[in-house]
Amino acid sequence: AKAVGRNNYQFFRAEMKHLTNDRLLLEHSLHEALEKGQFYLHYQPQVKSENDHVIGLEVLLRWEHPVLGNVPPDQFIPVAEEIGLIGRLGEWVLNTACSQLRDWRSQGFKDVRIAVNLSVQQLRQAHLVERVASVLRANELAGGDLELEITESAAMLNPEVAIEIFNALRNIGVELAIDDFGTGYSSLSYLKLLPIQRLKLDRTFVKDIETDPNDAAICSATIALAHALGIEVVAEGVETEAQRDYLLHREADIMQGFLFAKPMPAEAVPVFLNSPRAV
Ligand code: C2E
Ligand code: CA
Ligand code: CA
Ligand code: CA
Fold first, then answer.
1. pLDDT digits (tens, 9 = 90+) for 8-17
2. Would you say the CB of residue 257 lies under 6 angstroms from ligand 1?
3. Does 73 sit in the ligand 1 pocket, CB within 6 Å?
4. Atom 19 in ligand 1: which residue has the minimum CA distance?
5. What's the CA gap between 204 and 214, in Å, rounded?
6. Residue of the CA atom closest to atom 23 of ligand 1
């Protein structure tokens, strides 16, 4: 029995070493990924429910590591936050996306805004508002050309601070959306105080909307609540016609999901914006 225990222990040690190496490799690689140009952006269309017009593009970060391959953002963004890299990385995303939008504007695409994800640490960054204002100015964009998405849990971590920063961002015209709504236990009293234009209804509720009465109730109630507060609803992760019909019926304002388009590289966006969509 002792020998087995020892073997298990050695196996465990080897596993741990492997995990630790992976983690260290990830951290080390992240530190040099910016300089090495390994990050790029994808864009996912958001469409107006009633007419399928593209009104926005969510900016989604991608990392192609030479050995690890494509590392999903759900895996590397938490690490980037822990090692204090998210500030620089977030700034790179904002700069790159704004300069891309400026390009599209000069090609004649006037009515589409970009939606950029903001991490909780960026929210706490000194001079965030000045930085956003200066990126917009540098790219000859208006505040309304940019929407910032902040998760419900990030906003609720320190609601007073969030309210203050959100107000400052609104003063420069930037639009604000609460991301992953329904997963973060918001206090409704704070929701009322946040100067937001949109709620993004989390994909987990949309997924089983036709079969799970609880999810359906949450979707309907969220839409009703948002509308009562003068806030639009973006339904995330819409994959099927049935989900779309259901959400349309319950007056979700905007939809995003694989049914309309998957996140795509920048080169594909003008083609998509020009194509008549038969959804
Ligand atoms: P999110 O902000 O909730 O982004 C939506 C995610 O859902 C994206 O995953 C998108 O590809 C995926 N998605 C969109 N439509 C559908 C659909 O119909 N079905 C399914 N199954 N999935 C769909 P992605 O690109 O892997 O991003 C994951 C998360 O990583 C994002 O979740 C966001 O929290 C974070 N993230 C991505 N880019 C950034 C960034 O630039 N900054 C920060 N702070 N976080 C980012
Ligand atoms: Ca988002
Ligand atoms: Ca989301
Ligand atoms: Ca999410």
1. 666 656 665 6
2. yes
3. yes
4. 237
5. 12
6. 237
In this prediction, the answer to ipTM > 0.90 reads yes
Tell me the per-residue pLDDT of 96-145, one tens digit each, with 9 for 90 and over: 999 999 999 999 999 999 999 999 999 988 899 999 999 999 999 999 99
Of 260, 209, 267, give the one whose Cα is nearest residue 239.
260
Please, are residues 114 and 60 in contact by the beta-carbon 8 Å criterion? no
Q: Which atom of ligand 1 is nearest to the CA of 258?
A: 18
